[in-house]
Design a protein that fits this description.
alpha/beta, Zincin-like, 5 helices, 7 strands, disordered C terminus
């Protein structure tokens, strides 16, 4: 197997890495790995076929992610549901929206305005992770810092630790260089 990192495709989803395999005969597959897309192709493909398949697979992944993503009104509705379920409806944001300018935070809020912003990097992640970040920001509308009162609010969400672990793993993977496995694809 050879690993050929490519430049960013201009999709706004980060770099594309192509992995060729002599064991792979006909199938092409792709998955997201942090901000990178990994495309697995047969070793015998030409450069033109590779480029075509990269485009096809990026389109397929984007379509899958769009089906899983909440739009702005759904995001606000979900915030209301989470507030009712876990915060007795006390957190009432004035706005909830996706933003593309948060690269070091998963979410943020301005309690004085009641606004919540979630990083676009969360789009396509499991719903329990998005719910956790949304609930985290809702809790900040009630308690500004990360003291014991804040964490008591989040203790009611049963997937807090799992979501935090998921996000820590994504962040750690983004800092590590990728090394191909010894067993191929």
């Amino acid at each position: 197997m050879t690993v050929e990192p490519l430049n960013s495709t201009g999709t706004g989803r980060g770099a594309v890495e192509v992995r060729r395999s002599t064991r792979r005969r006909r199938t092409v597959s792709a998955y997201r790995d942090g901000d990178r897309t990994v495309v697995l192709i047969p070793d015998r493909m030409t450069a033109a076929e590779e480029e075509r398949w990269i485009g096809v697979m990026l389109d397929r992944l984007a379509a899958q992610e769009n089906r899983r993503m909440l739009d702005g009104s759904e995001l606000a509705r979900r915030a209301t549901e989470l507030s009712e379920q876990y915060l007795q409806g006390r957190a009432r944001p004035s706005s909830v929206r996706w933003v593309t300018n948060q690269h070091t935070r998963w979410g943020s809020c301005t309690p004085a305005e009641g606004s919540i912003r979630l990083s676009h990097r969360l789009q396509g992640m499991p719903s329990f992770v998005v719910d956790y970040v949304l609930l985290h920001e809702l809790a900040h509308l009630l308690v500004p810092g990360h003291g014991p009162d804040f964490w008591r609010l989040l203790d009611t969400y049963p997937r807090t630790e799992r979501a935090r672990g998921f996000l820590e793993g994504v962040a750690a993977a983004g800092r590590l260089p990728h090394t191909p496995s010894a067993q191929g694809e």
